[in-house]
Amino acid sequence: MTSARNLFTITGSDAESFLQGLVTNDINKLDDGLVYAALLTPQGKYLADFFLARRDGDILLDVDAALAEMLKMRLTMYKLRADVTLQDCPLHVHRGLGDKPDDAMADPRHTSLGWRAYRDTPQDSDTTDWTALHIAAGVPQTGAELTADSYILEMGFERINGVDFRKGCYVGQEVTARMKHKTELRKGLATVTIQGDAAPGTAITANGKAVGTLHSRAGDQALAYLRFDRAQPEMQAGDSTVFWQQV
Q1: Which fold would CATH assign to domain 5-181?
Q2: How far apart (Å, rounded) are the C-alpha atoms in residues 136 and 130?
Q3: In terms of pTM, does the model score above 0.85?
Q4: What value does the mean pLDDT of the chain take?
Q5: What residue ranges do the domains of the chain occupy?
Q6: 208, 183 Cβ separation under 8 angstroms
Q7: What pLDDT digit, counting tens, does each position of 95-125 carry?
Q8: According to the model, what pLDDT value does residue 3 have?
């Protein structure tokens, strides 16, 4: 099922420059379709991830409902005297797979995640196992893998088109750029196979040492946050066995 989403419209003569100085992706990409981005803390940690799209001359922002009020407050805090207005939008998010309708845009994170559209009425039904698709594509989900402790590069944001390293400054840019250019990622998100009934949140160990944490799971596949220097092809999560193949 699709998680609850909130939509905002961002209007005003400074709307694009305002967002360009805040979010991780390049607002100019809106000319090509849907843009996936995040807002970070000044220390480079995750606050919220969302989609941005052009609609009737405004910018539409599509965010998980659990983060909507916090994100709106943060954006309002940064607005200062800029000519920018944030308003709730009554449209509804629709998601689907297969042929993209005329009013839809491709999900920029991965081709397997289909399309998104914004319509006047709610989506009637959605039986797609989006969690399974996210796991297979290695795409983190809000509130599951993406939490206040997350660094977006460890969550694969470069691979899923959520960050642009040529756009210039944004909040948290310095830490993110340093992680990209000066260090090798020692921790990060990986797809694993589970043999057993380990649930999300279970600690993963190898040779008696802590390696990471199990996150979203669908069948025998799951996403896990791993410390790569300790990860092994075969690990433990409680009474379950975790298999990881380094790519």
Answers
A1: Gyrase A; domain 2 (3.30.1360)
A2: 10
A3: yes
A4: 96
A5: 5-181, 187-243
A6: no
A7: 999 999 999 999 999 999 999 999 999 999 8
A8: 74
